[in-house]
Amino acid sequence: MTPSRHYRIQSYCFNGVPMDAATAAGNCKAVTDAIRDIYAQEDMGSLVFEELYRCAYNLVLHGQGELLYTEMEKAMAAEVEGIRGSLSAVADDSGEFLQELLSKWHLHTKAVAAIRDIVKYMDRMFVVANGKASVHDLGVKIWRDSVVCSGDVMPRLVEAVRRERPAAEEPAGDVMAGVDKMLAELGDEVHRGVMDASSADE
Amino acid sequence: MWPPESSRLRGSAHTVDGNCESVSPPVHHPLVKYPKRSTRSSPIPNSPSPNKEIEIPSGGAPALHGRGGNLRRRRQIWRRNPIVEEKKRSITVAPFECAWDEEFRFREAGRGCITFEASAHNDVTLVFRQQPGSQHYHYKMDNSRHYTVILGSHRNKRLKIEVDGKTVVDVAGIGLCCSSSFQSYWISIYDGLISIGQGRHPNNNILFQWLDPDPNQNVQYVGLSSWDKHVGYRNISLMPSAPQNSILWSQIECAYVERDGARGRTRKEESKDGSDQRILANFLENWDLSDAMFVVGSEKKVVPAHKVVLSSCGDFPFNLMNGAVIELPSVSYPVLHSLLEFIYTSSTQISKWQLISLLQLSSQFKVKPLVMCCEEIIGCLKMNDTGPTSSENLQLSSGGSEAHQFDYYPFKTPLNTQKIEQFLVSGEHSDVNIYVNGHGLVAHAHKLILSLGSVIFDKMFTNGMKESSASSVFFEDVPVEAFFLLIQFMYSGQLKADSKEITPVLVELLLLSDQFGITVLQFECCKRIMEFLSEDTVCSVLRAVSSIPSCKLLEEACKRNFAEHFDYCTTACTDFHVDMTVTSEEKVLDAILTWCMEACDCLNWTFVHELLSTARPEMLFGGRLTAINTLLPLVRFPLMQLSLLQLMEKSNLAKIEVFRQLVAEAIEFSNAGLCMATNTSYKELQYISDGDNNGVIYHAVTASSPNSRYTDPKALVSKNYQGTCFAGPRLEGGKMCSWWMVDIGQDHQLMCNYYTLRQDGSTTFMRSWVLQGSMDGRSWTSLRVHEDDQTICQPGQFASWPITGPSALLPFQYFRVMLTGPATGVSNTWNLCICFLELYGYFR
């Protein structure tokens, strides 16, 4: 028991030393800013993965997983809300609407994948330990609830699918195939709901 | 070993020597919370207890579990979530039942490892399946796919493995159970490779290994089950599995080849989900991270490749040629594809008529294993010329001949591992420079190799952010030495730190491997740390790992070590290390004071004593003053030396009311002259179930005493059910009382932490009674007080209670159950109607 063997691992004494609120908020902001940039798309190259991953890692390590998760969820929801707004500006022409919806969906899935990479540590540790929805599932859920199933998109989607359908009876067009795939990913219920509704009135 | 004469058991109706106006029992802590069954925990009014003088602290300090009589109970203090940990701690599975829990789940389906301790007569049974079952689940009635491992089947004679109800392994004489003590086992499942071993450390002491030809990739939940006897489980931990047995490597590889098709598909789906670690085969003809390409055939098809992979298994002319393009106009694409497939996945197929071209191509680039493979097949074909038609596909495989390669290491034959390690040293073909801020360049590395080692690096280099296109990557907040070891591990698959003790670097590396998701390295670090864990290092490690959710096993091990360091020494080795005992308890006190004062450095209580000469406790402890009332009773003052106690009594610390009481009590105990345990050879007898064979009475006591019609002491310890068996009442000091007493023998002592009673055939149920212990048969200490306890309500019923608090640490020779109030019923309410008694704890 010589003193020399009692080393300390200074920088790693986390226990009982929670991150102070300012640092936590700063790290969170870095992540949420990045989420905004990811959705803006042009800016991916300017983001530094190492920095973002480290921010998220430190937050989870210091017991701020809950904060990170809720902030991330909020940021994603805000971006998706913006997308919904932009969709309502699109003309009612069915082909154009579906195309736009689909391209936004691809944008969203790509963004979710990038976000998941950044907060991977949270996905592996915090999400598993606390039984939360994984980032991927959360992305799907947000899209389903605030875009596809929202009051102003759903009727237009059903209408557009109904109009597109007969035309695409033989080989389903690219757009229709994409929409079909998207709906399938959102879950059986939505998929069946849209398909039933669009064929019901025929 | 046990002369019957030394052990006696008497019903009180027949003894006249019992003097119950006893000397005060030595210790009785007021802050002992009993489990739910007992209705109240205050001392009973009639009990001759010294607690009358001791008031329960008015601060209303929350009751805590006392520092219990065994290691496990005590450890709870150090835990954050006692409810979850409690489950982990100890589980008893009744016959034909099965315990499931979200905790008992592999993180990855089909792969995982469980370590546990078990105590049973036979049939320690573990079920592995996709979904958890119910409490009454039984593997014999399960229609879904599952694995069952039975240790000690056939009356503890054989080890059995069943797959979906069919016995596939049945071997005699290994992996048997032990009913007298807990044995450690581990079972690992990895893609159908089931390994069973003994001890705490997976992959050490393998007892048996078996590979399922049709692996069940879905098993994820572990059920702890039994057959016809109770099985006790404890210290259950789940962790990732990493098969390391090299002998089985070739077998595993065969299994991989067999179901290559199906596997390839699932791989792809997983990586679409983004959660999966890519393997080298995923990079075959993949543009990700590629830095070289072939232009092949007359159609000039472009095929991407990776220099570092190609160069590690052959001689590709990247250095001679300008750029990284190799043009092969005369080679057809299928031949090149075969070559690349062989390199990236270590096996390939080719049509017979293209074999010669493949041989030529592989000779051109000096891919020796493939050259040898081709030549061998050509030789075979020449021997029996009647062979397959020219269009038939031939299978080429590098085989699993190199036994040193482990599953987790991403590079297999034909890749040359030494060359890959060399690339890290030389920086040849490097495509990324790794910098650590504040230190500078750490390594000229290869994105592909880092990506294969860690999914985080993979994402970093491929998800389109800055690092994906940059040639330099900067890391912040990482310790350089450990970070380099991490990189080295990804190249070599080995941890190149050969220290024989826990160094800070090892702990840092553990944290880094967690940060970057390198499970294998994390596992390796955990293993090393556990191997060298000592009381000197345990605190540092514990502080570092307790924040990491994936290090539960290590945390558990640290806590165990921590608890043992304090606890075992103090309970079992009192005389052995008198000084150490004192130091330990003193240290506990110091630690509590330090924490309550929110001080940075560890304080000595004498220092606090000096502070208290001028300051009042409220000033010193501030908001933690109430905490000190809660924590101080956890210090086992009775174990300290009398001289020290007397010093403490006079110190200013006695200003703290709780402290004064505790010290006074301890001194009283010390003066009562009861000797503590005098030797170290305590045997642990753990309670498993009502009426089991683990207790002291079964273990050691034989009764002899004059019989009468209804009071047969032998019956009480015989384990046979007795319809009528009671101790009659008598007057002792003017009060009614009746009791049963057990004497476990002159040379024996028991630190009792659990006891079981059984009601006889009558309906006279005891309601208020007390279990007491004594060293001399005259002065009694109450171990557990029951007041209006409604537990027993059936004739012949078993009932068991734990003994908590400091009294569970005191060794006694005599134990007695004494009625303190009338039992139920109309007549004979002072009859103590029990026909069975069993005691558990640390026995000597």
TrEMBL record, chain A:
GO terms for biological process: ubiquitin-dependent protein catabolic process. Signal peptide: none annotated. Residues 31-189 form the Cullin N-terminal domain. Gene3D superfamilies: Cullin Repeats (1.20.1310.10). One of its GO terms (molecular function) is ubiquitin protein ligase binding. It comes from the Eukaryota. Pfam families: Cullin (PF00888). Belongs to the cullin family. This is Cullin N-terminal domain-containing protein. It comes from Leersia perrieri. The lineage of its organism: Eukaryota, Viridiplantae, Streptophyta, Embryophyta, Tracheophyta.
TrEMBL record, chain B:
Pathway: Protein modification; protein ubiquitination. CDD domains: BTB_POZ_ZBTB_KLHL-like (cd18186). SMART domains: BTB (SM00225). This is BTB domain-containing protein. The lineage of its organism: Eukaryota, Viridiplantae, Streptophyta, Embryophyta, Tracheophyta. It holds the Pfam family F5_F8_type_C. Residues 30-39 have a biased composition (Basic residues). Residues 1-72 are annotated as: Disordered. Residues 290-352, 430-499 form the BTB domain. InterPro entries: BTB/POZ_dom (IPR000210), FA58C (IPR000421), Galactose-bd-like_sf (IPR008979), Methyltransf_FA (IPR022041), SKP1/BTB/POZ_sf (IPR011333). Gene3D superfamilies: 1.25.40.420, Galactose-binding domain-like, Potassium Channel Kv1.1, Chain A.
